[in-house]
Amino acid sequence: MHHTGIDDTVVSTSSVSGDADFAPDANPWQDTIAAADQALEEATRIQRGVQHNLKLMQEVRSLREELRKAHAETDRYRGMHARVVVGMRQLEDEHASAMSRLQAENEMLVVRHRVYRLMAEHYARVGLRLDPDTFAEHRDRVLQHILFQRRKGVPPAEISLSDLAFLLL
Known about the structure:
The chain is mainly α. The protein has one domain (26-167). 88% of the residues lie in helices and 0% in strands. It has helices spanning 2-126, 132-151, 161-164. The longest helix is centred in the middle third of the chain and has 125 residues, at 2-126. The radius of gyration is 57 Å and the shape is rod-shaped.
């Protein structure tokens, strides 16, 4: 009996050992298939990640292009604005110079008007004949006197004929 127990043990050991031999053969394949499935899932996940990354890079490129266009447009508008500002300053300068020129001409016309008016009063009062040479000589003297008075701050309208009587003798 003892002997049979060993055989039983041997048989049972061999049957366990046969199962053990079969299980190690089955487990590597199952492990390999599971690892391959896991690797495929990981590869799929990596591929999705790469595709997502490529999509993001493409979006970044398109946003950079839009930004470049926006900067170019801003520069173009900045240049247009600078040209408009320069043009406006030139117009302001031209306007200021034209205004000062017109103001000077107006002042001169006011002075001449006063000269002719005073001389007309003088000739009317004295009753002299209107000699062109005498008129021109008197006109120049009266003009110089009025310009001198204006430089002193006396407006031409305040200069009267009595102030000029000594020039017209």
